Amino acid sequence: MLTQTFADAVAEAEKVIAEAPHIQTEQDLIEGYDYLAGSIRASLQLAWAYERDFPYFVTSTGPYTKMGLDNPDALYFHSYLRDDAEYVVTGTRGSTRDLSFQVLNGDYSPVDVPDSLTAFDDRALEIGSDGRFELRFGPDRSKAGPGYFVLGKGSAMLVVREVYSDWAAEERGTLRIHRADRLGSSPAPKDRTTIEKRYGVAGKILLSRLRTFLAFPEWFYLKLPVNTMTEPRPTPGGLATQFSSVGHYELDHDQAMIVSVPASDAPYQGIQLGSRWYVSLDYVNHQTSLTADQARVDPDGRIRFVISERDPGVANWLERLGHARGFVQIRWQRLSRELEPADGPEVEVVDVAELPGRLPHYEHARVSPAEWAERIAARQIAVATRMLG
User: Fold this and answer.
1) What confidence tens digit (pLDDT) does each residue in 317-338 have?
2) Which of 188, 254, 307, 383 has minimal CB crowding within 10 Å?
């Protein structure tokens, strides 16, 4: 049967999910099977998008194909490359807060993070008054300069991130890629062998994807003391303009974690929660993430987030949605300076009932049930608009 290798991989993937070491409840397992469904969809899409001679950008992750503690504020795109060919990327710059490009020498694996061979944001581009831009990636070092980025040996993937801060006001741009010497020609028709190979590749992508991102928390989170967050540091993987602070929490039903951080001068600052499957929580219908634009800043210039199960009645509540254990990450992007410890978060665990006395600007932070519903409605509308834009 032509699809047998993929069917075998799906069966093996179900075992990977069922045997994940963090599972404690039936809900953990149900979420795992939901995560598996998204991973199956993504793996098939990625295998069929493996076109290095006639490339195009595909969505790497989204609300239904989550992986790698996906950022709710980002649209992720990628295209495959050859390191000995030249590619042309054209587009228009939208009004999103950041647009960044990164060339990797492979994909993530259960034992390694791919090297970042090139990483920059759109400040390195020449953008016209109409927002249009063109850049080239290729092996010819004599062409290196504005608009031409050299592909190092082993270059395999171009990743593009478009990041929002104000979900409602900012608009996405456009993006296109082609191999310089192939525009106007066509790939050979697919035959049975090609399709069979792609099912095999999809199976390998599926298993690698699951095993890799079950290993990630052990590398970067779980060795840290619980209910703490790190100082800001360059994000692993080499994204040039991003720092992050990470941690993992474990809270009782009546406990809350207060994360207090200065409102940054960085163009983008955002916080999010993630499950032990190392994916974002539902950010469409619940407030499980906030950017500096979405958050309410206290009069002293700090943003105080409250992570809890119970509703604390404040604007910056991050809903943990039944996840007594999980991950928390703050990102800063499009930086023009290195961050220092003072730019990072302070963390405190308190009882929810204590919050009025522990939040120095509690009255300023409060929201009514009607105001909260408006916040959720705004998220739902903005994500729907963004994903169809």
Assistant:
1) 999 999 999 999 999 999 989 9
2) 188
